[in-house]
Design goal:
alpha+beta; twelve-stranded antiparallel β-sheet; two-stranded parallel ribbon; 11 helices
């Protein structure tokens, strides 16, 4: 497995080594911060990457020149970047190669029970890669200025287009495709040959769009980021699509859809609530092909540990996505009664940071289903809450939306398979379902995330 960030058609090929999980990333590695003989080095307290996947570790090591300089020897009263630069997507483009065919240990780390790549671990790597790409774009290569803090704000879409085998080499390529004043959108594509030994060009197996925001590392306020200058026709098209998505997000945040919803969706709400009321008031007469939303829920909890933190000392966003995915998968499994098959991450919001020591609770439910005989869809919501028993408070830190179907081979073995219709018991649940359905329909009609 290797990782490089050379632009296409470039003669340079700077590879970033992936450190073995069995050795320290600092072993026999002198740096500018070592003594004159290279014998001492100030350690970052148990480098966070040591506890992540080897890919995430390598990506975080790639950022170390900026972050180590800032965290270990922060310049006193260092000024912020004074002049924004114009950069191209090629300058941030980064590639990761997973040598699954030749690296047994790596292959076993990523293998799931169906001999495919574990999606949860891949989500961790995607988040780490998007973060490294955002750092590259925002860097001004000036050691006298203070670097920006870049955090994941949301995931717009992650779409699985075909199964990803764990026995065939894999590649992820990503680059910045759009920037606002303080926000950045990164597009990532996972590619894999159709079969081992195939001469065909790699095909896209998964695509993802991450949105990061920049904060001043001293004040914590939003900070401007370097501009972007798309060069190719494809880069210009990706920029225009991302600009449209950003405008849509602004409109939703401003409540632009609220009046339309209140005036035109009363009948839909009543239809959804009608069956739910029968479940609550006359359960013996309720439709046996339906189930209350609240009866599909699962929950788990954990105390956030130091090993789960990122370079900034917060809990790694990829770890949160991994845990949410595992719960969503289990929820779909318990609901359908067959092994689910992941299709896409519809949306993820990172609403507040999660710290080491936080008591984190993940709550999931089947929000709604789409009963299609060929490919039934199960839409799962997972909400992460930071709970503080001492203060008797509970705040939402993240919301996740996943879509699953069932594995065709499992479905074929179960005659008469069907999934239940999910109905709300309260108006609040009904409104939430309609809102998510409308958001999905709007994105689909505009071709976002495809």
């Amino acid at each position: 497995m290797d990782l490089n960030s050379s632009p296409p058609n470039s003669n340079s090929n700077t590879a970033i080594p992936v450190v073995s999980t069995f050795s320290s990333p600092f072993e026999n590695r002198p740096s500018a911060q070592d003594g004159p003989n290279g014998s001492t080095r100030k350690p970052i307290s148990l480098w966070p990457g040591m506890y992540q996947s080897p890919v995430t570790n390598a990506l975080w090591e790639a950022r170390s020149k900026i972050f180590e300089r800032f965290f270990l020897d922060p310049p006193k009263d260092a000024p912020p970047q004074s002049e924004l630069l114009n950069k191209t997507p090629a300058q941030s483009r980064t590639t990761i190669l997973y040598n699954f065919s030749s690296d047994y240990i790596l292959r076993e780390q990523y293998r799931d029970p169906w001999n495919e790549v574990r999606i949860g671990k891949l989500l961790e790597d995607l988040d780490a890669l998007a973060g490294t790409i955002s750092v590259k774009h925002c860097s001004d290569d000036d050691n006298t200025t203070r670097p920006l803090l870049l955090v994941t704000a949301s995931v717009d879409k992650i779409v699985l287009k075909k199964p990803i085998s764990v026995d065939i080499d894999l590649k992820i390529v990503g680059a910045v495709i759009w920037v606002g004043r303080s926000s950045i959108e990164i597009q990532l594509e996972v590619t894999q040959s159709s079969k081992e030994g195939s001469d065909n060009s790699d095909s896209v197996a998964l695509s993802a769009n991450f949105i990061f925001v920049a904060r001043d590392s001293k004040t914590g306020k939003a900070a401007p980021v370097n501009r972007i200058s798309p060069e190719t026709e494809r880069e210009k098209l990706l920029f225009e699509e991302a600009e449209a998505r950003n405008n849509l997000r602004k409109r939703k945040r401003g409540g632009g859809d609220k009046r339309e919803f209140e005036n035109g969706e009363v009948n839909r709400l009543e239809t959804l609530l009608a069956e739910g009321r029968i479940f609550c008031d006359m359960p013996a007469l309720a439709d046996r092909d339906s189930i209350l939303l609240r009866d599909t829920s699962l929950e788990n909890s954990l105390i956030c540990q130091p090993q789960q933190r990122n370079i900034h000392g917060r809990i790694f966003g990829g770890f949160l996505m991994h845990r949410a995915f595992e719960l969503a998968f289990s929820t779909a499994y318990a609901f359908a009664g067959l092994v689910p098959y992941f299709l896409e991450v519809d949306h993820v919001d990172f609403l507040r940071p999660v710290d080491v020591g936080d008591f984190l609770r993940f709550k999931s439910c089947v929000l709604y289903t789409e009963v299609n005989p060929d490919q039934p869809l199960i839409n799962i919501e997972v909400v992460a809450h930071v709970t503080r028993p001492e203060l008797r408070s509970c705040e939402v830190s993240n919301t996740f939306y996943f879509t699953f179907t069932v594995r065709p081979e499992a479905k074929a073995k179960k005659n008469g398979f069907r999934i239940l219709n999910v109905v709300p018991a309260t108006e609040e649940e009904a409104r939430h379902i309609v809102d998510r359905m409308d958001s999905q329909a709007l994105l689909s009609t505009r071709g976002f995330g495809k």
